[in-house]
Design brief:
Strand order of the largest sheet of chain A: 2-1-3-6-7
Number of strands of chain A: 7
Structural class of chain B: mainly alpha
Radius of gyration of chain A: 27 Å
Shape of chain A: globular
Strand content of chain A: 5-15%
Oligomer: heterodimer
Helix content of chain B: over 70%
Number of domains of chain B: 2
Helix content of chain A: 40-55%
Radius of gyration of chain B: 23 Å
Number of domains of chain A: 1
Distance between the termini of chain B: 16 Å
Largest interface: A-B, 80 and 94 residues
Structural class of chain A: alpha/beta
Distance between the termini of chain A: 72 Å
């Protein structure tokens, strides 16, 4: 415990070598007595001029930073936060339990355009997908929520879905425990900050920018994924145009996928991976059964991929072992893009997501397929298909 | 709400505006009290009830102490406060811990017991405000202070938002008298207060969250075995992170209070330049260490009853101080290590009473202190003893098969920031921040202030909670 020697003893002025006129004792110097009102001196400085100078310099710095990122191609957008996701999740609690929910990874997230869907369907779906995240945690959350009685479109990107990868897996927990302060902060940010500042994106955060400089390699880490998409306030999201217009940036993203595929090939060991796949399928089937028991219409969709990504998926997650097994175990129909001519032929600049303009067209085609074959009033025997699958 | 959030920016602007209105002083105090309850309710509204319970119990206990004629009555009122506060703390913070330990204990003697798991949510800052309210009753009991004149002043002392959830732990005698007279910040206080808040948030958002936290997480929260470089880098990163996080909170709190015209005590004095452990504890979390000294170490006998009793009081104080930080035996080990350090230092001070270190030895002793403090941080940061041993073995070069964990950028960040912190602490160890600012050219102050604010903005902090909130 503190001895009688004071940490405040002998404080000296920085340059003059004289006793520090701002020195004061702390509670450490006064054992066993009532502590007096603290002293909080203000350094003698022209604080008005200092504040003015600070504000001017800060405005210049921020304006310069904003200009730099706009010149790079960045534009203001809404941040894809847990808070934004929670707003959509709460729509189910707030009377929209009968809505269509889109639940998947980045492909369902970027490639389905909510305005197009709404134009065709009359109702805006609830977008609950998250990039790099298997839908299972949210699926189980929805299965346990009796308020949800609508329709559910589940996206299947084989590497994410069957590995159970959860880049943003904490969303459900966040939504359940979101504090009033966090809700207010989300609202303030999406109304007063995000729509105006292009630099307000995790990809341009100071530490992220510094970390991706060409430092000597010490550890072969999984490459972080650069910015891919633009998000709007209801989570309508689309692939960033820079991927179409900037070949260098497109190459960066493709190399990132190749890096991930390489690591995916290395780990985990096949036996563990197969066991994990089986578990993901079983848990999915269990959650889907709960949903269907209360009348929720469920449909899986294998979204398009291309190039090296598609080759990797076909090799690492063959359709018969994964997709077919999933449909068989769950007894739910599914749309595999390769089976439908109208769902093919779109441009995927980095092999994994459809470019913005094509995605709008793709949404329309997908909606038509869904209505024609599964959910529409004239769909031929959805129940028959499901029965056959069983 | 946390200081590093947009919600707080808007909240604080509203509070400043309300405080500047030409209203009666009582109305301004009511505004501050309501604002403080809103500040706390923004986490979890029902927990405001706990604040009220703590406030009301200690208010009436202090009133009872003043009116009590007999020593037993005084004793009873004091005990009521202590039991109510520690009871609340015990239930919410240590309930599951005690149950788990009880289960383990009886399992060890062959009795199978499987209690239900209680999902008890820890109210933010409960360790801080229960200590603050207890100090009120204990000061009155020890006749060091008289009770507050009115409930509003006392309630505001408990709930005043700058110190409510993570300190500095204030004593009633430090804050209640400030509510007696109208207070409003001068223009200079407001501007300096804003500068302090920027400094605090820079420490938290930029240094702690953006650069240091990830290095500690990659080693401490993974199942990889670290080698010497990674283990040391992660531990040094955590030493910097926890300082920047907690000192950052204290500085922001002090600045926020100053903007409203109130003074709060120093909580840190460049602790990584401490020479010896008693010096460290006079510089680290000063308001907690002095609280433990005044209300635990001294009542346990302090150094007034011989060496054996002194060491016993010292160890008891540090062990309980460790437990205060969290319901885990690793925190107790952290406190215990500090207790051992302090006891060993005491022995050495007696044995070498006439030793006066030269300049080099002084710095060497300072670095030795910092190194040993880092060893304690391993137990503070690791979630289990198993993990702590793995990291310690790495720090002492015993993990032969270890592979690199941290990237070059992480290592460089840690080296630059922690090196900068150490250098700053040594340069500032006998100075105050205010004296350095007073001597600096105004343009330099502007530039540093603007650069810190700019770094805060472009680091895009995610509103991460401060580490000490969990305590």
């Amino acid at each position: 415990m503190p001895s009688s020697t004071s940490s405040s003893d002998g404080l000296r002025d920085a340059r003059a070598g004289t006793p520090d006129r701002y020195a004061r004792q702390t509670a450490a110097d006064r054992p066993g007595v009532a502590q007096p009102v603290p002293v909080r001196p203000v350094p003698a400085q022209p604080w008005g001029r200092i504040l003015l100078g600070t504000v001017l310099l800060l405005v210049l710095l921020v304006a310069g930073w904003e200009e730099y990122w706009r010149a790079y191609g960045a534009r203001p957008g809404i941040a894809n936060t847990f808070g934004l996701w929670s707003i959509q999740r709460r729509r189910i609690d707030a009377g929209e339990g009968a809505a269509t929910v889109l639940l998947g990874d980045s492909r369902l997230y970027f490639d389905i355009h909510l305005p197009v869907w709404e134009r065709l369907d009359g109702r805006r779906p609830i977008q609950l997908s998250f990039e790099g995240t298997a839908p299972l945690p949210v699926l189980e959350d929805l299965a346990a929520d009796p308020k949800f009685t609508g329709r559910l479109l589940i996206g299947v990107a084989p590497d994410v879905f069957f590995s159970g990868f959860k880049f943003r897996g904490a969303a459900v927990g966040y939504a359940r425990k979101e504090s009033p302060s966090q809700r207010i902060g989300q609202w303030l940010s999406m109304h007063f900050i995000e729509p105006y500042f292009a630099f307000d994106d995790p990809d341009y955060a100071l530490q992220t920018v510094l970390a991706r400089q060409p430092w000597p390699v010490r550890v072969h880490q999984r490459l972080p994924v650069r910015k891919l998409a633009m998000t709007e306030s209801d989570r309508n999201t689309y692939l960033w145009s820079k991927l179409e217009t900037d070949p260098e940036y497109r190459t960066i993203i493709r190399n990132t996928w190749l890096n991930h595929m390489q690591r995916w090939d290395d780990e985990p060991p096949p036996a563990a991976a197969l066991k994990n796949e089986k578990e993901q399928i079983e848990r999915t089937a269990h959650a889907v059964a709960k949903l269907r028991a209360r009348g929720v219409k469920v449909l899986f969709v294998r979204m398009p991929s291309d190039g090296a990504y598609l080759e990797f998926e076909n090799r690492k997650y063959p359709r018969a072992r994964t997709w077919d097994a999933l449909l068989a175990a769950s007894g739910v129909p599914g749309i595999y893009f390769a089976d439908y001519p109208e769902l093919q032929g779109y441009e995927l600049p980095e092999w994994s997501h459809i470019k913005h303009s094509d995605a709008e067209r793709f949404t329309g085609e997908l909606y038509k397929v869904i209505q024609r074959d599964f959910w529409g009033p004239n769909a031929p025997g959805v129940s028959a298909k499901a029965s056959a699958a069983r | 709400m946390v200081f590093n959030s947009l919600t707080f920016v808007v909240f604080f602007a509203c509070v400043l505006a309300l405080h500047a209105l030409p209203l009666p002083w009582t109305a301004k105090k009511i505004n501050l009290a309501v604002a403080s309850y809103l500040f706390y309710a923004a986490w979890n509204p029902p927990f405001v009830i706990l604040l009220w319970v703590s406030t009301v119990v200690d208010w009436y206990a202090a009133q009872g102490l003043v009116k009590a004629k007999r020593p037993t009555s005084r004793h009873a009122w004091m005990l009521l406060s202590v039991i109510a506060n520690l009871g609340m703390l015990g239930y919410f913070k240590y309930g599951q811990f005690l149950l788990d330990n009880f289960t383990s204990l009886i399992s060890a003697v062959g009795i199978a017991y499987h209690p239900a798991h209680y999902d008890i949510v820890l109210p933010v800052g409960i360790s801080f405000y229960t200590f603050a309210t207890m100090s009120y009753t204990l000061d009155v009991y020890l006749r060091r202070a008289t009770p507050a004149q009115n409930l509003l002043d006392y309630a505001l002392f408990v709930t005043f938002f700058p110190h409510l959830v993570a300190g500095p732990i204030m004593r009633p005698t430090e804050l209640v008298p400030q509510f007696a007279q109208p207070r409003r910040a001068t223009a200079e206080q407001l501007r300096f207060g804003l500068a302090l808040m920027t400094l605090g948030l820079f420490n938290k958002i930029v240094l702690a969250d953006s650069f240091l936290a990830s290095a500690a997480e990659r080693v401490y929260d993974s199942d990889k075995i670290p080698g010497a470089l990674d283990a040391w880098a992660a531990t040094l990163a955590f030493s910097g992170q926890i300082f920047c996080d907690f000192a950052g909170y204290s500085t922001t709190a002090i600045g926020a209070a100053l903007c409203l015209g109130f003074a709060m005590p120093d909580n840190f004095r460049f602790p990584y330049a401490a020479v010896g452990f008693s010096d460290f504890w006079r510089r680290w979390h000063i308001t907690l260490s002095s609280w433990l000294r005044d209300y635990l170490y001294i009542p346990l006998g302090g150094n007034r009853h011989g060496a054996r009793r002194t060491y016993a009081a010292l160890m008891a104080t540090m062990l309980l101080g460790g437990l205060w930080h969290g319901a885990n035996w690793t925190f107790v080990a952290w406190g215990g290590l500090h207790g051992v350090y302090l006891a060993a230092e005491r022995v050495l001070r007696v044995r070498f009473a006439n030793y006066r270190p030269g300049p080099l030895a002084f710095v060497a002793l300072g670095l030795l202190t910092y190194t040993l403090v880092n060893v304690t941080w391993v137990f503070f940061r690791a979630k289990t003893f198993g993990k702590a041993w793995v990291v310690l073995r790495g720090m002492f070069g015993q993990n032969a098969a270890a592979k690199p964990i941290l990237a070059t950028f992480s290592l460089l960040s840690v080296a630059a920031i922690v090196g900068g912190i150490l250098l700053t602490h040594w340069l500032m160890r006998a100075r105050t921040l205010e004296s350095v600012i007073a001597r600096a050219p105004a343009a330099a102050v502007s530039m540093i202030w603007a650069l810190m604010a700019f770094a805060i903005i472009i680091a895009q902090g995610a509103g991460n909670a401060f580490i000490y909130f969990q305590f």
